Amino acid sequence: MRLELRGVRKGYGGVEVLHGVDLTAEGGQVLAIAGANGAGKSTLIKVLAGAAPLDGGTILLDGEPLTLRGPEDAQALGFRTVYQELSLVPQMTVTENVLLGALPTKRGLVDWPAAHARVRALLEEIGFADIDPRARAGKLSVARQQMVEIAKALAVEPRMLVLDEPSAVLAGTDLDRLFDLIRRLRERGVAILYVSHRLAEVMEISDRITVIKDGRVVDTLTPALTSEDEIIALMAGRRLEQIYPDRVPESGKPLLSVRGLSRDGAFDDVSFDLAAGEIVGMFGLVGSGRSEVARCLFGADRQTSGTVELDGAVTRFRTPGDAIGAGIALVTEDRKHSGLVLGMDITDNTTFATMPRISHAGLLNTRRRAANVQDMIERLGINPPRPEMPVRHLSGGNQQKVVLAKWLLTRPRVLILDEPTRGVDMATRVDIYRMIDELTREGVAILLISSDLAEVLGATDRVLVMRGGRLVAEVGSADTTEDEVLAHSVGVAA
Amino acid sequence: MTGQQTSTVRDTDSGKAPEATAPASARWRAAVPPPTILVLIGVAIAIVVVAGITNDSFLTEGNMTNLLRQMVTTGLLALGMLLVILTGGIDLSVGSVVALTGIMSAGLVSGLPLPLAVLMAIVIGVLCGTVNGIMVARFSLAPFVVTLASMTTFRGLTYVYSKTPITPTTPDFLTLGSQNVGPIPIAAIITLLMFALGWVLINRTSAGRALLGIGGNREAVRLAGVKVQRHLVLAYALSGLCAGVAGVILASRVGIAQPSLGQGFELDAIAACVIGGASLSGGRGTIGGTLAGVVLLGLIDNLLSLYDVQSYWQQVLKGLIIAVAILVRRGERQNT
């Protein structure tokens, strides 16, 4: 099988995203697609899934022109797509989700034993036999849900499989198992499109790498003949000298002191200090209680015991509003679920946390609001720079910038960032690290929660490691290794 | 997983077109149909022109005044309903609140000074809405169920207050609903003023933006420090306020307050919002669109009466027209 895109054009909401993309995917090959945020990766995926009709250009399948009128057409051809956002029905079982609309029947009734058996076999095939087909999808971890999505895509033998940021929620052995699966599919002659920001993975798994920038293909490379630096340079259109800013750790007086903080069922007896101008990383596997600590510090959840001192005074935030008032900001890990109102525009999303400050007797000072938003658009380079644009139309990296803008406007003294670079491309990451570094020069204390080891060591001064709801280690970022931090987080001696 | 089904917001009120910076945007504009409100205004104008030509009594001053007066109740209820719908809720109780406040104002006015009687009736409306709001916000109950229950409760209270119709005796009371300034009913002026206030609320106050945000992504605005419960109560209380004003005006216009007043009014109000582009899942809707929806529904009612269409057929036709309006909007949304 050979699928070619020729001069494909596609726009949304007033902006043409793809300006004539040429691309060739072949059966039995893994083609990686790399690009910065806003480069058009998501749109390209939608085009291939038949979810976005073309504005121009052609798609050729084995040399024959092809028209995808909708996702049904793409599915009928064996084109399967696993989107970055999970689309499982949380209340239904794994089996129902995987065989959605195609449950086996016997005499007109669903044949449950056969259905479960079939799904169990599928899960075994993809290397995740430990997922129970009878479990409710919503009860599974995000990583497991992602694998169920992949099982769903493989329920019918695919000819082409598009994976959009599949590793965003996978780590360690899960990722290895995914790569094994990809290699087996490749041997069976499936064409695989692997879309990811994580260049190390891209280099490892792909046969060819197509780099897109601003809706155009910049180059197609072979992993053996290129380097991560070269790809980054192509994606950014400039060479990134340095990913993480140089840091000189200084330990001043603690600004935030957490003592014995606990929340039943989430974390227990967590104590640490955060000084002004300091960047402290927090690492831990999913479920270790990292995000829960952050939510508690921010007043989004109640603590069961323990104290939090801000500037030497004991504080107890009952609502996020209290925390914001005291100068604490939280960039949550899931921007679509808890960070943004997708249907509303950049202006609204940027100012939700500061509305009381820019209104008088309830009336918004719209001029001041517009000025604030304009400042942030320029400072963070939000693209397109159009305040009235619904954030739904923005790329992942730009959406994250809008979330950051919202919190920067609150002028925080303590900024908690929970996975701020998840689903964000390398160029934007570098922008974010630089911005964090600048904030610390103004005396802001940063707590950076991340499951990216390179980031948690590279961007911080010291690192707190959590495991099973407890703080198990504290290490200086410069004096430790990825292996050591990982060992602490899983509980084996390094 | 949330938000995938909800579709794109279109800023129908501002009418801001994207700046033509690239040829792409010009192409986009050509491909997208005009916003809801322009479609609605176009349809309304077409109806007026056709009706004016085919029916002699349509464009008379008497009929126009009458038309405006008829729109008042639906308009006020739709205004309050919009605020609730923006949060992702619904208020089924407004018809019953119209009855309760209507009959109470008619009853109270015989014993109390007129302004006090009117004010009390409106306060009753606000209280009804506040109860709804507290049930929804504080106890996290589904708005549909809460207001379904209170719809029955408020209707029951109306009958408890008076099983028989009340005829207000104070002549001044009738002024509110029946007097005109020139050809324009006072009630219509009040309604338009309230729509103007509604526009300011939604577009120019932090509370209004919060209502939209709550409907769009409740958790995100909660974490941004917005007091979600307080704003939900506000939305329902304002819906009660609008229903209270509508009840008083209706009792005053009809000149006799029946305990069965206002049955089914909530449906017209919801229909007006939906025709005007509001999404029942919250986070989307505009004052202009809602007003246009009210005008369109009013025109349809008025014309069907003028053409002597049997009242049962009127219902059938109205239902079909609403269905078509929603279908048209659906097609338009898919294009964005």
From TrEMBL, chain A:
Q: Which Gene3D superfamilies match?
A: P-loop containing nucleotide triphosphate hydrolases (3.40.50.300)
Keywords recorded for this protein, A-Z: ATP-binding, Nucleotide-binding, Repeat, Transport
In what residue span(s) does the ABC transporter domain sit?
3-239, 238-493
Which GO molecular-function terms appear in the entry? Answer: ATP binding; ATP hydrolysis activity
Organism's domain of life?
Answer: Bacteria
InterPro entries in alphabetical order: AAA+_ATPase, ABC_carbohydrate_import_ATPase, ABC_transporter-like_ATP-bd, ABC_transporter-like_CS, P-loop_NTPase
Listed Pfam families: ABC_tran
PANTHER family in alphabetical order: CARBOHYDRATE TRANSPORT ATP-BINDING PROTEIN MG119-RELATED, GALACTOFURANOSE TRANSPORTER ATP-BINDING PROTEIN YTFR
What name appears for this protein in its UniProt entry? Monosaccharide ABC transporter ATP-binding protein, CUT2 family
Q: Which lineage ranks, top first, belong to the organism behind this chain?
A: Bacteria, Bacillati, Actinomycetota, Actinomycetes, Streptosporangiales
TrEMBL record, chain B:
Task: List membrane-spanning regions.
Answer: 37-55, 76-100, 112-134, 141-161, 181-202, 232-251
Q: Give compartment(s).
A: Cell membrane
Question: Is Nuclease there in the keyword field?
Answer: no
Membrane topology according to the record = Multi-pass membrane protein
Q: What is its main location?
A: membrane
Region labeled Disordered — which residues?
Answer: 1-27
Any Pfam family matching the protein: BPD_transp_2
One GO term in the molecular function aspect is: transmembrane transporter activity
Instruction: Answer whether the UniProt record assigns the keyword Ligase to this protein.
Output: no
Q: Which GO terms describe its cellular component?
A: plasma membrane
Keyword vocabulary terms for this entry:
Cell membrane, Membrane, Transmembrane, Transmembrane helix
Among InterPro entries, the record links this protein to:
ABC_transp_permease
Q: Which PANTHER family match?
A: ABC TRANSPORTER PERMEASE PROTEIN YPHD-RELATED-RELATED, RIBOSE IMPORT PERMEASE PROTEIN RBSC
User: How is this protein named in the record?
Assistant: Ribose transport system permease protein
Record organism? Streptosporangium subroseum
